[in-house]
Write the structure tokens for this entry.
Amino acid sequence: MALWDGRFEGGPAEEMQRFSESLGVDLKMFEEDIAGSLAHAAMLAEVGLLTADEAARIREGLLTVRAELREGRYRPGIALEDIHMAVEHRLIEIIGDVGGKLHTARSRNDQVATDVRLWLKRHLGLLDEALQALVEALVDRVEADGRTLIPGFTHLQRGQPVWLGHHLLAHAWAVQRDRARLADALGRIDRSPLGAGAMAGTPHPIDRRRTAALLGFGGVVENAMDAVAARDHLQEAAAVCAIAMSQLSRMAEELVIWSTPEFGLVRVGDAYATGSSIMPQKRNPDAAELVRGKSGRVFGDLSALLVMAKGLPLAYNRDLQEDREALFDAVETTRACASITAGMWRTLTVNRGRYAEALRGDFLLATELADYLVTRGVPFREAHHVSGRLVRWCERQGRDFTALTLEVLREHHASFEADALAWLDPEAAAERRTSFGGTAWAEVTRQVGVLRGMLDG
Ligand code: ARG
């Protein structure tokens, strides 16, 4: 029998019970639910709503229920509907009617809101650890292999030579921003809804700040109706995850293409590669493909949370019970993807010689010729045009920039001097870019220092 069945003559249909239960997903947060009850009972005793003896018995009972749930000795049936009723029902079974005093001045509405916020605090913390480990893996990789010259791409066409470290740091900074977004979201999540009751508060002299402090919340949600109705913090957490997944999928895509023989820049480590059941030679970057694919799931989770709450009148509506499946999936999937991506970066090998020769004479050095002319006082727009004509000249010969001689350069512009050809060295091209945030190695190492400081701090 349900704990709310006083006004009913008949019980719910079996089909209805199966349809309305949230126990399956709620069991992931039974620790949070019991923590909330322990804090609530302690506070009720402090304000005189429970005697010390009643509070002690409730506390003991709750600890027993928790042990039973941890050890799998208590498996609540779906007739109990959700984790809140499952815990209270078992508590009353164990300690008797006094257990019924626990629900004084609270509702399942503020309980579920409290549980989810506690779950989020714990799991966003774990997600942040995974993201931090990923930034560390990237920065370690920059220090190990960063001084490898690669083409920097735009439109996936060769653009300008850069150090691999410059490219990897671009990813590291993006992940570091995901961490900042997460910390910012956590600040809003860290407010206790407990004691809001159904929506209106309670006539009993409770102390919401006390339960908030006991549960480790940084503060309380100011308005009781907002406390039970708000789901924007779930949407925000899922949005943080979705943005992180969008970023992770870009990194994953690069690992997929970089590990093809056509690119040949990296070789995914055995620990994160898989074979084919038919093609014996295969060594597939499945981990990266799964990260790329799972991004779609997390975007779906965010959509589900946005649409679930859209147009919903205040305060609690049962629609809100749909929130956890999407939320938990978003957070857990993103954490797994961050961790797998860090693992891939830690175990792959970089083919450091891949582009050493390949970039010599490549047209990706065309900007150098333009920049050279700029140092001779030629307006960049004109210099760009001259360099473009030199590319066209080489293409007509079926050659690359190694075909250029000082004579050819001077035929295209009188400002070219003997030192111009030296500008066509790809490494020198990367090293010339010493502007703040540029690819020059000194700038790469400066950023490594800044990131390391953020990781330690
Ligand atoms: N199982 C419910 C949920 O997950 C708990 C709150 C139920 N409240 C109610 N008024 N039916 O949202």
Remarks:
- Residues 6 and 12 are 13 Å apart (CA to CA).
